[in-house]
Amino acid sequence: MTPEKLAFENKKLEKRLCREVGRAIVDYNMIEEGDRVMVCLSGGKDSYGLLDILMKLQARAPVNFELIAVNLDQKQPGFPDHILPEYLSKLGIRYHIETQDTYSIVKKNIPEGKTMCSLCSRLRRGILYRVAKELGATKIALGHHRDDMLQTLFLNMFFGGKLKGMPAKLVSDNGEFMVIRPLAYVPEKDLIRWAEHRQFPIIPCTLCGSQENLQRKQVGNLLRDWDKQFPGRLENMLHALQNVVPSHLMDRSLYPFQTLKTTGVESEDGDKAFDEEEIEAPARVDEEGNEVQPSRVIPIAMS
Ligand code: SF4
Questions:
Q1: Which of 17, 165, 174, 269 has minimal Cβ neighbours within 10 Å of its Cβ?
Q2: Beta bridge mates, 298
Q3: How far is residue 144's CA from residue 155's CA, in Å, rounded to a whole number?
Q4: What separation in Å is there between the alpha carbon of 286 and the centre of ligand 1?
Q5: pLDDT, tens digit, for every residue of 271-294?
């Protein structure tokens, strides 16, 4: 690729990232006037990307809000603790590095060979809530992206027996904070390209020595394969999470199946029980932000 073409592609990517993050923020009313947003920075590509795009949006947003980058140094062996302070100082952004040796606590309490993640993340969560309180943060922003959300949906279906994803916005479990995920619409592949372009000083995430979550990895591979084979499928799946039809699922707490009565009134939304159902893909937004009408209607055969 010529340098001109690369610069053009990167500009397009930047526009797309800003557009998608902005869209998620508006759709879920994630950031409001006067908010102080604590951006959790791990040193991975996603959280660097989150902070970077939020800073761009902050400069042009119609509302005023503050950003504070926060990193928790868990004292994992070999953690390069100079990288984030240097990077954040250069950015000129307000930041806080919280140093807490949770690594030793986890090592002491979890037998060798057992997974350390659940205790580690519980400790991390508690510390981050405390820091958010001390900093007077009104929102906590996390760097989960579209593919994380879809992976979670599949993991819950496959292993948890639940139709449950990862919310774009939720109240923290202690009830005190609004947690937001502004990258909810952003595909991971865009964050990978953006991290390369911006040359973020990535800190490896394997320092704790914990095993990778195999199931999440497998589901991630499945989604990546689908994305290659069937472009638009992951986008449709995200769309599906925003278009839930309780009457066509089986959760009796969401729809009154047991007391359902006929109405005698024709309705377009009623079930055409004997017809083949046609599934029309929703209109998509292409890389330039233009709406693309669906080209395929998929009949679902009823036997
Ligand atoms: S991978 Fe390591 S740092 Fe991350 S939650 Fe698990 S134990 Fe903690």
A1: 269
A2: 279
A3: 15
A4: 36
A5: 776 776 677 777 766 766 777 766
